[in-house]
Every structure is written in structure tokens, then in C-alpha cells.
Write a structure and sequence with these properties.
alpha+beta; 2 domains; binds L-homoserine; about 35% helix; Ribosomal Protein S5, domain 2; 11 strands; four-stranded antiparallel β-sheet; single chain; 10 helices; Alpha-Beta Plaits
């Protein structure tokens, strides 16, 4: 190892809002905060290990093969034929589990990205997608890139096909903001997926496709009216809203406060209001917060532009 070799890398992987109402499993965007941090460093002993996890209340396994960050990093090293390298990971969880903020995806992305950086960046960000996906899938068994994609690449990411990982970044209108509120309850993604029907009426499919296409057009043309008319979910939201206390009250309040649209972030319980401008986003966020506060449901508000960078190295 020469003097120029990096010995340690610390990365930040942001929270993400998956589905964005009309794009179940095929659309997601990253926000500025919260996010997970992972440190990767070279150690003398060969092999990958996890030295420390913080912020998880002891819930996450230190075993590399059972940890989303570990699985992602291991899969990458295996692909590169570098399993003998001595690397230690530290994982600092800075967002809650089962929050609908893409917590397991963030750890998986951070694990793969940190190790790739540490070993001299043999792969591009986009090439890390499948390794991060393997890591995330080890947590909930499902294979959807609507958290991992935007967490890795930043911006708003559309997934044409989850199996092929055929994805594209969409343009982000300059004044697009989100108010994301996490009410302090836990919803397991697996449970939120199980309550969805295996078949949906054709009329709903048609409506959802129209909204998804409309949202994409609205983003491309920076047409906030089109975005607003399109941010509707007629498939998952009607079934999942029952898992979130005061959902429709929060939605009515957010829309009255000027949100372009409001729905569930990922599998929930977090909710988001999409907004034009920071001021509106703050007002919408505070309105949603006051609905949850009125029933003594603790919650955290995050007001953010769409994060265009995705995972990144930090000091
Ligand atoms: N698209 C996924 C779902 C996101 O809604 O179940 C979960 O992280």
C-alpha cells in the first residue's frame, strides 16, 4: 500500500421517498436529510467485518452476511474477486427502521459505495446498483429499486424494469421541494406489501399509468400544475392509509396548505407533501406535524429540496 492509498472513507447515504404516489416500485427521489453514515477502512486481518453499529438500539446484526450494508459490500468484493482484502465497516444509523424513508436501502448503498471508494473506485455509481440491491433485498426479500436507485444516484429516479435494473434519472424542477413527516410508529415493508391486492381493476391501472406519465411530463416540462394533477395513488394508498393514524386529515390539511400532492412515503408510515418552493414546503410540513401532534403522535419533519447528489463522501 503506498502513501497515496486512502485508508478510510466515510460516506453519507440519504433517505428516499419511494413510489411518489403514482409510481409504486418504479419511482423515487432522494432528500437531503436524514441519512445513514458508513465508514470503511483497511485493516490487517483479511476479510470483511463489521466493527461497530450505532443508532440501531442493538437491533442490527454485526454478521456481515445478515446486514444490508455488509451484504452489499460483500457482493461487490466477491464480484471483484477481492474477498481477501481486510476491510472493516462502521455503520451509523441516523434514521429509524420501518419508517418509509428507505433506511435499509441507505445502509446498503452506503456499504457498497464506501467499499468501492476505499478500493480506488473500480466501478461507477450506476454499476453499484445491483450490489446495493442485493443488500437491500436481504432485509425485506423484495426487489425494487425505488429507494436504492435515488439513494445511490440522487434526484428523481424512474425504474422501467426492476429485474433488469433499467433505470433513468428524471429532470428535477428547480423549485421542487418536499415536506416529509415521519410519525413515530413502525410499519414493516413486508406487512405493507402483503396488504396490497395481487390484482387491481383495469380502470385503476389506467388511471395510475396516466398519473405516472403525467408526473414524468410535469417534471420534464417543469409544469407544476401537471405535477399536482398527477401525484395521486389509486392502488396502494387506499389500502395502506389505514396503517397511518390521521392519514386523510393530514392529507386534507397538507393540500389546504398548498401542497401539490400528498401521499405515503414508500411503505409508510412517513408521509410527504410535494411542494413548489421552500416556504410552501415549510408551511405544509408544519401543518402535517400539527395533525399528528393533535393526537399525541410524536413525529419528525424534514423539509428538503430533491437531493440531486445521492450518496457521497463526507469528512
Ligand atoms: N415501493 C416499495 C413499497 C417501497 O411501496 O413497498 C418500500 O420501501
Amino acid at each position: 500500500m503506498d502513501n497515496e492509498t486512502v485508508k478510510e472513507v466515510r460516506v453519507f447515504a440519504p433517505a428516499t421517498v419511494a413510489n411518489v404516489a403514482c409510481g409504486y416500485d418504479v419511482l423515487g427521489f432522494a432528500i437531503e436529510a436524514p441519512g445513514d453514515e458508513v465508514v470503511a477502512r483497511f485493516v490487517g486481518e483479511p476479510g470483511l467485518r463489521i466493527g461497530q453499529i450505532t443508532g440501531d438500539d442493538g437491533k442490527l446484526p454485526l454478521e456481515v452476511e445478515k446486514n444490508t450494508a455488509g451484504v452489499a459490500a460483500l457482493d461487490l468484493l466477491k464480484h471483484l474477486g477481492m474477498l481477501d482484502l481486510g476491510i472493516e465497516l462502521e455503520i451509523h444509523k441516523k434514521m429509524p427502521f420501518g419508517s418509509g424513508l428507505g433506511s435499509s436501502a441507505a445502509s446498503a448503498v452506503a456499504g457498497a459505495y464506501a467499499v468501492n471508494k476505499l478500493i480506488g473506485e473500480p466501478l461507477t455509481k450506476k454499476q453499484l446498483l445491483s450490489f446495493a440491491m442485493t443488500g437491500e433485498a436481504s432485509a425485506d426479500g423484495a426487489w425494487h429499486a425505488d429507494n436504492v436507485g435515488p439513494c445511490l444516484l440522487g434526484g428523481i429516479v424512474f425504474i422501467r424494469d426492476n429485474q433488469e435494473l433499467d433505470i433513468a434519472q428524471l429532470p428535477v424542477p428547480s423549485n421542487l421541494w418536499a415536506a416529509v413527516v415521519h410519525p413515530d410508529i413502525e410499519i414493516l415493508t413486508r406487512v405493507a406489501r402483503e396488504i396490497l391486492p395481487s390484482e387491481v381493476p383495469l380502470a385503476n391501472v389506467t388511471q395510475q399509468i396516466g398519473n405516472l406519465g403525467g408526473l414524468i411530463c410535469g417534471l420534464i416540462q417543469e409544469d407544476y400544475g401537471m405535477i399536482s394533477r398527477s401525484v395521486h395513488d389509486v392502488i396502494a394508498e387506499p389500502r395502506r392509509q389505514k396503517l397511518i393514524p390521521e392519514f386523510y386529515r393530514a392529507k386534507r390539511a397538507a393540500m389546504a396548505a398548498g401542497a401539490l400532492g400528498f401521499s405515503i412515503s414508500g411503505a409508510g408510515p412517513s408521509v410527504f407533501g410535494l411542494c413548489e418552493g421552500e416556504e410552501t414546503a415549510r408551511r405544509v410540513g408544519e401543518t402535517i406535524t400539527s395533525v399528528f401532534n393533535s393526537v399525541d403522535l410524536a413525529n419528525q419533519l424534514y423539509v428538503s429540496r430533491v437531493n440531486k447528489t445521492g450518496v457521497r463522501v463526507i469528512d
